[in-house]
Amino acid sequence: MKDGIFTYLIGIGVFIFGVYILVSFVPVGLWLRAWVSGVNVSLLDLIYMKIRRVAASPIVKSLILASKAGIEIQPAALEAHSMAGGNVEHVVKRMINAKKSKVQLSFSEACRLDLEQKDSSAEPKGERSVKKSKSKK
Q1: Alpha-carbon distance 40 to 126, whole Å?
Q2: Which residue of 1, 3, 8, 86 is most buried, as measured by CB atoms within 10 A?
Q3: Distance from C-alpha of 31 to C-alpha of 25, rounded to nearest angstrom
Q4: Is the separation of the CB atoms in 54 and 74 below 8 Å?
Q5: HEC sequence for 20-77
Q6: What value does the mean pLDDT of the chain take?
Q7: How do residues 78-101 score in pLDDT, each as one tens digit?
Q8: Does residue 61 contact residue 27 with C-beta atoms inside 8 Å?
Q9: How far apart are CA 93 and CA 58, in angstroms?
């Protein structure tokens, strides 16, 4: 009789541990938010993003914004742009603004503009001091 109870308790413990791992590792809340908004992102996609150390929340938010604006973007494309150091929220907002103003802007062009803007704003500190010292002479 004691062996049956012990086995039962071990089974419950393993189940609780499994649920804990699932909830802590898999962003179920983020997937649910995407699903309710009508965005097609699978739990497996979100798990892969977590494994690749990509912030899934901005990507899902951007996909929801794009979906509501009638712009179709693939999650993998946003993930790739994020991994390249771009800001996915800026890209989607730029595409939405372009659509509102009836300007043709593809996703790749918006990504290119975002990365160029990031590169131009990241001026090295040494160059700034060199420019100041040249202007003083």
Answers
A1: 46
A2: 86
A3: 12
A4: no
A5: HHHHHHCCHHHHHHHHHHCCCCCHHHHHHHHHCCCCHHHHHHHHHHHHHCCCCCCHHH
A6: 84
A7: 999 999 999 999 999 999 999 999
A8: no
A9: 12
Contact 61, 88 (CB under 8 A): no
Buried-state track 108-120, b at ≥16 Cβ within 10 A, e below 16: eebbeebbeeeee
Which residues, at least 6 apart from 95, have a Cβ–Cβ distance to it below 8 Å?
Answer: 66, 69, 71, 73, 105, 107, 110
Q: Give the amino acid at 40.
A: N
pTM of the entire predicted model? 0.71
Query: Using CA atoms, how far apart are residues 127 and 135, in angstroms rounded to an integer?
Result: 12
Query: Cβ neighbours of residue 77 under 8 Å, at least 6 residues apart?
Result: 107
Residue with the larger pLDDT of the pair 4 and 63: 63
Q: Which two tokens stand for residue 52?
A: 């690749």
